[in-house]
Amino acid sequence: MNNSNTDNTPANFFKQYKPELFLLLVAFYWGLSFPLIKTGLLYSSPIFFVFCRFLLCLIIFLIFYRKKLPEIKSQDFSKGIILGILLYVGFVTQTIGLQYTTASNSAFITGINLIFIPFIQIALIKKKPKPENIIGIIIVIVGLFHLSDMNKANINPGDFITLICSVAFAFYIVLLSKYLETINFLVLVLAQFSTMVVLTLTNSVIFEIFILKTFVFETNFSLLFSLIFTGIFSTFFGVFLSIKYQKYVEPVRAGLIYNMEQVFAVIAAFFILKEILSLNQWIGAFLLFFGIFISEFFGKIKNIIKK
C-alpha cells in the first residue's frame, strides 16, 4: 500500500511524465506561433522570416552551449543535417502555406502528420504502435477536423503546400527518435540550427530576391515581436526541448502530444486574430484532449481494472 501511495503523488507523476509534459510545453509554444507568424508575414518574405528565426536560435545556442558540446563526429552531424533538411521543408512550406490559407486550416493540415507517423515508424524503426495509440490517433484526427472547422473550409493552394509540411514533420518526428538513441542531443540541435540558417538564407537570396523578386522586410514592432517570440520560444525552446526529451517518448505518442499545438493555435487565434471559436471547435478541442488521454492512460487504466 505504501508503494502505491507513493506512486500516486504529484512529484512522482511529474517525474514519470516529465518528457511528455515538456513536449506539451513545446506544443504550447508552437500553437502560439500560428497567429504570430500570420501577422509577421504581412511585413516579411516567408523564407527570410524563417531564416531570422533560426539565426536567432543559433546565436542563443552558441552563447549558452558552445563549451558544453561533446566531440562532434561527422556521421552524427550528417544525421543532424538530414533532420535539418526535413525541418526546413516543414517550416518553409508551413510558412508559405500560411500566406494562402487560414491559421486554423494550417493547424489542421499540419496535425494530420499523425496519419503518416505509424507507417513511417514501422518502416524506419520496426516498431508497431500500441492499439490505444491508434485509437487515440483516430479520435484526435476527428477532433482536429472539428477544431479547425474544416467542414466550412474551402480548399486552396495553401492547403496543398501545408500538406508537404505535414509529411516532412512526420518523417522528422520518427527519425529524431531513431537518431536520439545513439547521438548526443546537443549535436543534433547544432546541426539542425546550422542547416536551417544556411538553407533559408541561400533560398531567400536565390528565390525571394533574384528569381521571384518578392523580398520584403519592413521593420516594425509587430514584425520584431513576432520574430523574437517565435524565434526564442516557438523555435529555440521548441526545437531544443523536443530534441532533448523526445528520446523518452515513442514517435506516435510524441506526435499525439505535439498535436495539442492545434488547440493552442485556435485559442491563440481567438485572442490575437479575433477568430471566434464555435461550438464545433470546442467539441473538437475536447475530442483532441480525450484522444491523447486514451493514448496515454488507457493501458494503465486497463491494468488497474484487471487488478
Give a structural overview:
The protein has 14 helices and no strands. The longest helix has 28 residues, at 279-306. The protein has one domain (21-306). With 307 residues, the chain is mainly alpha-helical. The protein has helices spanning 2-7, 10-16, 18-40, 46-65, 74-97, 103-111, 113-125, 131-147, 157-179, 185-211, 221-245, 251-258, 260-272, 279-306. The radius of gyration is 20 Å and the shape is globular.
Average pLDDT taken over every residue: 87
Number of domains: 1
Which shape, going by the Cα principal axes?
A: globular
Proportion of residues in helical segments: over 70%
The H-and-E topology, N to C, reads as HHHHHHHHHHHHHH
What is the rounded distance between the termini? 14 Å
Number of strands: 0
**What summary fits the major beta sheet?**
none
List keywords for this structure.
single chain, 307 residues, mainly alpha, globular, disordered N terminus
Summarize the structure.
This protein is mainly alpha-helical and 307 residues long.
Topology:
Layout lengths: L1 H6 L2 H7 L1 H23 L5 H20 L8 H24 L5 H9 L1 H13 L5 H17 L9 H23 L5 H27 L9 H25 L5 H8 L1 H13 L6 H28 L1
Helix pairs in contact: 3-6, 3-11, 3-13, 4-10, 4-11, 5-9, 5-10, 6-8, 6-9, 6-13, 7-9, 7-12, 8-14, 9-12, 10-11
